Amino acid sequence: MFDLTGKTALVTGASRGIGRGIAICLAKQGADVAVNYHSSAEQAQAVVEEISSLGRRSIAVKADVAQKNQVEMMVEAVNKEFGRIDILVNNAGVLNYKTLDQMTEKDWDWVIDTNLKGQFLCAKSVVPLMERSGWGRIINIASIASGGVGVGYQALAHYCASKGGVVALTEGLAIELGPKGINVNAIAPGAIETDMAKEISEDEKVKQGLLARLAVKRIGQPDDIGAAAVYLASEEAGYVAGSVIYVDGGWLAS
Length: 254
Ligand code: NAD
Description:
Layout: E1 8-11, H1 17-28, E2 32-37, H2 41-53, E3 58-62, H3 68-82, E4 87-90, H4 105-133, E5 136-141, H5 157-177, E6 182-189, H6 199-202, H7 204-213, H8 222-233, E7 244-247
Parallel strand pairs: 1-2, 1-4, 2-3, 4-5, 5-6, 6-7
The site of nicotinamide-adenine-dinucleotide has 26 residues, from helix 1.
């Protein structure tokens, strides 16, 4: 089950954290993987080497997902190398903690452009390749703070808005692309130990507060999200479209 042999994936923001975890999980299931990065060429190369050591093909591709021309060049480079893109994981994301009075238009644009517009630009560039083969999987990384489930984060209104947009984008694209054999879904992670959520590893009080709340008594790891991505990328998930899978250790249930 969940055999991705012969598939090619592009994972954005894959030099570290959840993106890295997803890229490696997809490769372990047999996929060749293009590792997109924004600035950390060295970290991206390390991920490429890890994937290559699994016997899969991999390249690192630099691009700011919020820049149309860079996204187009990235997709062209991946297509040139692999001749196809079957799986797109829109993972790249940013945040900065700002209350409304502190938040500038620049903060707003940075977060919305990276987290939401970036997913639109990547989907727009990759979908023609998926249409060519009549098969595709697009996996958008949302958040439990995407809205509608009673979780909001303090001083992150722009981030919450961007992730709400990701869920709406996922549903909109799912109904449009499903008839073409392209399934679009989202994963909404809870608290995952990465650089973005470094308060979890740096602040014992935050960590203990989370552990007390979570049904599964551990903090999430990138591989937990990678496993959900493997499922959504697989043939077996062919009847899943426009869904959001919450991978949150039971946060929402508690
Ligand atoms: P991270 O900061 O470790 O990784 C984010 C990655 O995105 C980095 O590699 C970064 O370089 C890349 N990136 C940022 N801006 C980019 C751009 N313009 N173009 C290309 N790449 C860019 O954070 P993470 O926790 O691994 O986050 C990955 C995704 O998961 C994000 O979308 C985030 O919002 C989401 N998420 C994380 C958590 C969590 O608890 N860590 C929870 C919910 C959702």
